[in-house]
Specification:
about 325 residues; Nucleotidyltransferase, domain 5; 5-stranded mixed β-sheet; 11 helices; 13 strands; glucokinase activity; kinase
Length: about 325
């Protein structure tokens, strides 16, 4: 009888891993660096070795593990675990699911990382029990996951709910890693917020953001804190990025009529400084009846959402 699931959340800098019980309790969690050298070819063997070592340390036999649920930042064929492209880690046409299966001897299920975060929040977090949910992750990029009629949406070739690549600046805008320009990811991600803040600081010589202009240490957190202190440049940036994001979510909401909209990722640590103007923008742009049905919340599982979603992927396939 299997008692454990393994969740793996592959990010641009770290791979988060966890051994999780059938009820969602995390027995052990840890992380390893994401080795992006040579188009990330060593990542599957790094994950397999780390899982093997940790199971030995925890005295858990592989026969007690029902499988591995892994999330990757990119376009995933969920039936095979084949990754068509994961720009931030260098994979292109990469047979990740089968490689990890061969290396570990375990059954492996793979999905997009933002979809796993949505599944995790839907199972045990801010979206618990919702059948209609939009999960947005705001980090280095912008990820989206949609649950409709209780099922995660993947689409015809794995690009459903790629909210970060909705065009919000037509005919121009900043270039995006996906090859397009003007994507939501170029505006409302942590990277986009910092870029916008540097542009704004140049127009407001008195802004405290100017202190960061000559070095690379400015973070989205600094921008939110400056806005909280009444800095005009920072406040303008937060107003702009929440307005654009609110409009994108309102447009997506028309498609599935969500009960809950969950905001996660590093930028969500700003809490109400982000949520209040974002929800206001969403309600401004959404169809009033759609807005009536939905509530906003900050993701509750934090950095564990992806690994918990990975565990759920194993659970629902067993």
């Amino acid at each position: 009888m299997s008692h454990y699931y393994i969740g793996a959340d592959i990010g641009g800098t770290t791979v988060k891993l966890a051994i999780i019980e059938e009820n969602g309790t995390i027995t052990k969690k840890w992380e390893i660096p994401t080795n992006t050298d040579n188009q990330g070819e060593a990542i599957p063997s790094d994950i397999a070795a780390s899982i093997s070592n940790t199971l030995k340390e925890e005295a858990i036999d592989t026969s007690m593990v029902a499988g591995i649920g892994a999330g990757a930042p990119g376009f995933v064929d969920t039936t095979t675990g084949y990754i068509h492209e994961a720009v931030n880690i260098g994979w292109k046409d990469f047979d990740f699911g089968n490689l990890l299966k061969e290396l570990t001897g375990m059954t492996v299920w793979v999905d997009n990382d933002a979809n796993l975060a949505a599944l995790g929040e839907n199972w045990l977090g801010a979206g618990e029990g919702c059948t209609e949910l939009i999960a947005v992750t705001l980090g280095t990029g912008v990820g989206g996951g949609i649950i409709a009629n209780g099922q995660i949406l993947n689409g015809a070739n794995g690009t459903a709910a790629e909210l970060g690549h909705v065009t919000v600046v037509p005919d121009g805008g900043a270039p995006c890693n996906c090859g397009k320009t003007g994507c939501l990811e170029t505006v409302s991600s942590a990277t986009g917020i910092v870029r916008k803040a540097k542009e704004a600081a140049e127009k407001y010589p008195e802004s405290k953001l100017n202190a960061y202009l000559n070095d690379a240490t400015l973070t989205s957190k600094d921008v939110f804190e400056a806005a909280k202190d009444g800095d005009k440049a920072a406040s303008g940036v937060i107003a702009e990025i929440t307005d654009v994001l609110g409009m994108a979510i309102a447009n997506m909401a028309i498609a599935i009529n969500p009960e809950k909209i969950v905001i996660g990722g590093g930028v969500s640590k700003a809490g109400e400084l982000l949520l209040e103007p974002l929800e206001k923008a969403y309600r401004k742009y959404a169809l009033p009846r759609t807005a009536e049905a939905s509530s906003f919340g900050i993701a509750e599982l934090g950095n564990d959402a992806g690994v918990i979603g990975g565990a759920f992927l194993v659970k629902k396939n067993n």
